[in-house]
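Fig. S4 source data, part A: sequence.
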Amino acid sequence: MTDPQQSAQNSQMLQGEPSPEELEAAHAANEADALAALAQAQGELATLQAKNAELSDQYLRAQADVQNARRRADDEITKARKFAVEAFAESLLPVTDSLEAGLAITDATPEQIREGAEATLRQLKSALERNKVIEVAPAAGTKFDPHQHQAISVVPADQEPNTVVTVLQKGYTINERVLRPALVTVSAPK
């Protein structure tokens, strides 16, 4: 004979309901799955936290590198501005020495003075050219260039209109930028 519990279990099985043992086993399996999922999530969290710490460290180092590069660049710009004329001034020192040496001679003849002045002028022009200061002295008949020339007057001439007649004062460029335009007279239209 069957006892009433067993018959209840048999009827539950026939109806499709799980037994208490099955429920307990399913609950234990769910807990095990949940614990495994929790352990996996905690592992992933630890990995992500380590990666986050690594990326934060890399970011801070990159920021420091950028700040250092910016500071070095600012220092170099400051030095470049401060000493920009150093090479130019150094190239003018021989010219100064020549002028002082010429003035130290008290009994020089006019020919010696002229010869010394011409030599000093050559030194000065050489120093200017080494520092990219180029003379602008257009020849007569050259087309007037408002970027390099400044017209002082317009005069009637037998030349093409709008061309240089005479140069009143030479101009200069430095690194292809006009330092001072050449002062010129320009031919008038006919």
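Fig. S4 source data, part B ends here. The mean pLDDT is 89.
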